[in-house]
Input
Amino acid sequence: MARLTLVTALALTGSSSALQIPLQLPFDTPWTSHRHVVTADEAGKLPLVDSETLQSKISSHALESRSKVLYDIARKAEEEYGHPTRVIGSADAHVFGGPGHDGTISYITSVLAELGSYYDVSSQVFPAVTGHVSESRLVIGDEVPRSASPMGLTPPTRDNEPVYGDLILVGNEGCEPSDFPSEAEGNIVLIKRGTCPFGTKSENSGKAGALAAVVYNTDPEVVHGTLGTPSPHHVATFGIGGEEGEKYAKKLREGESLDAIAYMDAEVRIITTTNILAQTSGGDPDNCVMLGAHSDSVAEGPGINDDGSGSLSILEVAVQLASFRVNNCVRFAWWSAEEEGLLGSDYYVSVLSEEENRKIRLFMDYDMMASPNYAYQIYNATNEENPTGSAELKELYVDWYESQGLNYTFIPFDGRSDYDAFIRNGIPGGGIATGAEGVKTKDEEELFGGKAGDWYDPCYHQLCDDLSNVDLEAWEVNTKLIAHSVATYAVSFEGFPKRTDELVKRNAYTGRTKYHGPKLVV
Ligand SMILES: *[C@@H]1O[C@H](CO)[C@@H](O)[C@H](O)[C@H]1NC(C)=O
Ligand SMILES: *[C@@H]1O[C@H](CO)[C@@H](O)[C@H](O)[C@H]1NC(C)=O
Ligand SMILES: [Zn+2]
Output
């Protein structure tokens, strides 16, 4: 599940095309089991999948063993990061990815490889810009603005050292070079939010010779944003809240002078990372049911629930599905860089041709399946606000929980996970989750047990998202539901709406880009 704001932010680099590289196999891994390899020919002779049988093959025991493997993989990053993590990127610029994330990708692909030719497996490598702020400080006059925070993908101040100057107010919103007075040169500029992306304001500041930039909000609260695609003209950029920002702007307008110190120890770097795709070799390739989970974690911890749980749920379903024939193609995805702003799924959808886009009948998102203080949450998708078919998928989840005598709640379908690029591009979507940093209500305690007043996942985005941070019962329940969703659409799309001609469907949340790395927040 992506976090609301990004201090460590990433963005896709400008122009790049999909690079499909062949899988590097076999992996010499300790978790290889000996399984009969299914040939495509044999796949045709297998029994047709049915939901009950597929569900019966899902056990919490198998999920738990996979989670232990994943935790050991996260520990490979200990030397470099000081603790287990499966975050993308690496402190070493020459390394393909973080050891924990690389290990995750290897594990997924090695498990799929054991299934022989049942799946066509491919890796989609894409570039991403990664930014990291080690330390930052802003002083204005004799104050440290309470609401100051570094923008995502900000470059450092010169030589990663503090810079000093007068605080200079920029005209209008700093979207035109002419908004910058000549005093901007060699000083620190204060710019109002609005009209153009933060990246443009930072770039104009650099071109005007400013040492650093401070963008103040138009609302009282802190402004978190990202500079987006790096520019050689970007300067170290902070955001501050509107209340503090307006106070400084007013003083400057009234002719008072303020000095400032800016310090940003930061780094921006381009790396490559990888989505894994696996599509059944059988089934109608023009009518695919697609599902995904994200393979990366945040830097702070091993991400066993977020989203080790979803990644392993769909892996286990992929393994079990391989004993059956399908009528429609089933396509699994393990997205990279979800935590950095939904980058992998954004990239995947952005390079789909119109023809390929239309082959995807729906996309199902499985992010955080086993929160310890869980609620059974269903994304509240509708056909009015989302591509037609999203409501039918939601009904499938509702019907299943009801058939099991389980309670459920609806949660906003607001673009916080990898389904977002799909619904923005006309593909019906939905999914289930068990909750992140939200607080369980008293009502939900009645519905699901657990503890009201606590987060659904008290270890969300923390070091303690480890082996003890999954509820095995919820995990098994939801993985059975995933199996049900896969089996249902693998057999038939009868009654499920055909794709409409609209590739870009109106979407209640179209204007919101708060979870995306590459999107420039204005
Ligand atoms: C779900 O969406 C419908 C339609 O937009 C809305 O009326 C309803 O309040 C939503 N429910 C929740 C729990 O968000
Ligand atoms: C569902 O919620 C009701 C309260 O509305 C509760 O009495 C019941 O035990 C819950 N069912 C399950 C399976 O937890
Ligand atoms: Zn997350």
